[in-house]
Amino acid sequence: MLxxxxxxxxxxxxxxxxxxxxxxxxxxxxxxxxxxxxxxxGEGLMPGAVRALAELGIAPPGHPLRGxxxxxxxxxxxxxxxxxxxxxxxxxxxxxxxxxALARRAAELGVPVHxxxxxxxxxxxxxxxxxxxxxxxxxxxxxxxxxxxxxRHLGLDLPDxxxxxxxxxxxFAIAPWTDHVEVxxxxxxxxxxxxxxxxxxxxxxxxxxxxxxxxxxxxFPSLAGRLPAHASSAVRGAGPLRQRVRxxxxxxxxxxxxxxxxxxxxxxxxISLAVAGAAQLVRCIRGDRPLDYEQAWRRAxxxxxxxxxxxxxxxxxxxxxxxxxxxxxxxxxxFTGLVNGLA
Length: 343
Fold this sequence. Notes:
Distance between the termini: 39 Å
Radius of gyration: 20 Å
């Protein structure tokens, strides 16, 4: 019998597997898709995520990020606020490169990845084990993404009365003009510009309006004017982004990564939270205290959840949205402190 079966071999699932293997647990991953898998992602790692990955022996290739820059997309004067990272750089890294690096590290540690799709209806548990798709383990970690089928099957989803938000991402073959992640704020959306390599930029747009990428990008004329006419990748999309969860533990099944609940991609902390959540999950099941995981997850994500939720609530009110960049400009110490609190 396995100690831990992980459903989902994306970054969260592989980070959990790596933590488990390093802790001496017998772990396996069920993932039907070949690695690497490309998905919609801002592709910017905050310094905390870079350090956490390094501690696991993972150093993906990418472009160093020195900070965050907020710009008002509707201000002709292009006022902006800039906050540098105080504890080392972040990293702009292609999602596929990150996924491949995690997969290599898991393989080095001897973690088997089975090309099996786990139907959530096959998940059964008793007082001592969980079975799913022919596997038996003491615990199961559901790392099956934003719209987790395992979470839904267990009845852990909660309705969300707020308007939905969506993300779109595309790449452009152009030399980055900045070593910061640029966040361009308009009245209806944000555009995130992330340097990924010597001749590669990622542009992700977060919005409450469903429209093609080019239509969304037209709402940022200054940014659009700096980009090549033709993109170098297809559009990837995700959403609705916000996923409310009743709890992260159901008996011997624990949720990790985006499956554990998601507010928004606005602060770019998905990978950091996935790695932190993976560490807490492994610590709790290693001590046979799965119920401790809920509180541990909340503690690890509290700061992120508070700031992200506050910004999303401001985003819902256009008049308040227009105050975000001017406020950051007027209060640079506060802006720098908030950025580094997350970083």
